[in-house]
Amino acid sequence: MFSLFFSLVHVYDASCRFGESACLKNVCWLEMVADTKGMVFRPGVYVASFRIMLINPNGFRNYPVMLRLDTSDGQHAEAERFLEGDQLRCGTVAPLRPVGDGWFDLDAGEFSVDTETPLTVSFTLREVDSDRWKSGLVIDCAKIELSNAIKHG
Q1: CA distance 111 to 75
Q2: Cβ(43)–Cβ(115) under 8 Å?
Q3: Each residue of 61-73: pLDDT tens digit?
């Protein structure tokens, strides 16, 4: 099933986490889910994001991807981001942070931890409102990192 919708591409640059990424072929509905179950986080503010690259994106015009974050202690965040056209870098909510070599971190949201207790975090990237076929999105990873560890432009 993986090969029907995504193909694996080898990426040789410092911004790619694993050297192999998934390239979206053609899908009508897109949904990616990342979950941590009962992971213990140190106190701090964290950002959950997807590392992506856009290679001739198609099918995302006029339909933003929706990003959502939920935690087992009730924290919630929602955002949206256009991935194609003039709207790519303006007028949207979700930060799209360049990390080098054409890669971006697309933030699903922030959550905070006060004490070291197990926490389940779920975050998603989806676009299911359009009936257009989508392609050209490369996904490297889903990640959670401390917000103060993020390098800003």
Answers
A1: 7
A2: yes
A3: 778 889 999 999 9
